Amino acid sequence: MPIPTSKCLKLLAVLCCGGLATTAAANNGAIPLLLNQCLNYSTDFHPDFSSAIALERQTIGLQNIGDQVNYYRSFPLPNAAREALLQCQLTLADAVDRVLTNPQLPQLIVQMRHTDSPGLGPLAQKYQYLLTHQLPLEQKAGLSTAQASIRQHLKSDNFQLLLGDCALPSSEPEITTGNVSTPASEQTADNKQRLVRNIASYLIQQPDEHCRYEVWRRYQSRAKASIKPMLSRILQLRQQQAISAGANNYADFLLRQQLIGSTEQLSKFLNSMTTKLPISPWNIGIELAKLPSTKVDTMPSSAFVKTILSRLQSLGISHEYINEHWIRLWHKHRLLGEILLSDAPQNRHLLIRRSVIGQQSGQSQLALKSQLKTLWDYQTAVSAISEAVTQLASGGRYYLDNGFALPQDAGRVGELWLEHFLSAAFSHELQPQPHSREQLAEDYRQHLALFQASVALTFYQQPDATPSPEIYASLFAGRWPEAEDYAYSFNAIADAGPLVYEPLWQQIIALAIYQTTTACSANQLFDELVVNEDSSGIEPLMEKIWGTNTLDRIIAQIHQGQFVADHLPSWCPLEHFTP
């Protein structure tokens, strides 16, 4: 039976247009109080470099205020409240800049590197990384302004497409223009020009493939003229930063400090993942509508939480209910912190206070739909609770240990491994059924991620080059010949730069670890990947599993399709490595 149009529209909106907004009510009365605290703390902040502990005691207050700002910014707010939070963010950024530009910081980094105190070596590495990547204040302001402007232009509804003969007939459902819904019959007498706000709606309602293609193609380049000079400015700043550090380009500069190691290794990884999806992006909505949905049982969120808590017990995590909306978690007699439960239209995790051993227990809000009815409901709920548990269980003694990971492209591997572990508490481990609507959506998201990562790599590695049309042709059906438009169709190229590949890479690494270590102790993996008291990198664990030349082995196995159930080892490589 075909999937109802309304459901396909929701999924297509997520795939093509950045997702559906989550609405929630924030406590606006707390914002003026937070702003006052922010301004007072930041103004009076004078970093103490006498020791790492002294600096931590000072900066943890700044970090906590920053987390509070991000928490409130996640809710719909009046303009005045958003302006107040922005003012606070700027003030906090100025205070952090006082730390990173202080001439005493390099001296403290040297002291931390030459001490045997637990955690100080990794902490020194993180401060050094931040110091190395610190831009002068004027350049930092220019970078932030350009990134924010690109985001705004790409998400703006203020654009027009000349549809001509491709306009939907007046008998079709209404098209939203601006903030007013107007019947199609009342929009522009000659039907030559329309404001198409919901591209997903258009693509699924338009029966003519040529029209779908033309409108999709124009939509991708809708903001090119506006954002091109801003993206060029970002590239210029990043190139200057790379050359100052002795690198040929920004991709080389950034990637040599990541787990992936180099632009060459990243190219190998992207190529190993590349397969052609026999569907073009402008036809994805039509194809989704033809497929059946993965069947799951409806479950109340309260039952879901109980199932997850039971699964966590096998990792040594116990819990107690303070009340039905307030849970306290413990791990091996250590208080991790609290999870506050709330009802919401969409599942998500909101960080309230980060856990830091010896300083503070953590606090998170877990917002869940009252009923989980679809595979996506289950997956996003597991993702939210995995994020919450990971932030509570992180075992670092300093805020940066738990709030900032090196290498950056391995930062969420522990959390994603935990997602796989928790998903196993449910039927089919929450995987889409073959040939289902969810499987196609997942395949499309992966191909889109590969496309964007390849475009970003070319953009920052070869600043004067235009991406090859083969990047698109190797991943999707159809043609998108305007390769010069590729870089202007998504905002991650400005925000993440060459690290656009990061989410997909971390998902693959987490899956590889999970699939390869199913015969190992989950407690050991949780301690090493999530708790990680020593703040050590992920490389030693990966070498235990794959031996030397770890990345080459993983990329080869990806290319051979070995991270599937049929290739699971019956032994634990952590106990006995066999190449």
Could you please describe the fold and organization of this structure?
The chain is of the alpha+beta class and 579 residues long. 52% of the residues lie in helices and 8% in strands. The chain contains 24 helices and nine strands. The chain has helices spanning 5-17, 30-43, 52-73, 79-100, 104-113, 120-132, 137-155, 199-205, 209-220, 224-244, 250-255, 263-273, 284-290, 301-313, 375-393, 399-403, 413-423, 437-461, 470-473, 492-495, 502-516, 522-531, 539-546, 550-560, and strands at residues 175-177, 180-182, 299-300, 317-323, 326-331, 334-343, 348-353, 362-368, 371-372. The strands form three sheets. The chain has a five-stranded mixed sheet with strand order 4-5-6-8-7. Strand 4 (317-323) and strand 5 form a beta hairpin. Helix 1 (5-17) packs antiparallel against helix 13 (284-290). It is globular.
Write the layout of secondary structure elements.
Elements: H1 5-17, H2 30-43, H3 52-73, H4 79-100, H5 104-113, H6 120-132, H7 137-155, E1 175-177, E2 180-182, H8 199-205, H9 209-220, H10 224-244, H11 250-255, H12 263-273, H13 284-290, E3 299-300, H14 301-313, E4 317-323, E5 326-331, E6 334-343, E7 348-353, E8 362-368, E9 371-372, H15 375-393, H16 399-403, H17 413-423, H18 437-461, H19 470-473, H20 492-495, H21 502-516, H22 522-531, H23 539-546, H24 550-560
Parallel strand pairs: 6-8
Antiparallel strand pairs: 1-2, 3-9, 4-5, 5-6, 7-8
Helix pairs in contact: 1-8, 1-13, 2-3, 2-4, 3-4, 5-6, 7-10, 8-13, 12-18, 12-24, 13-18, 15-17, 17-21, 17-22
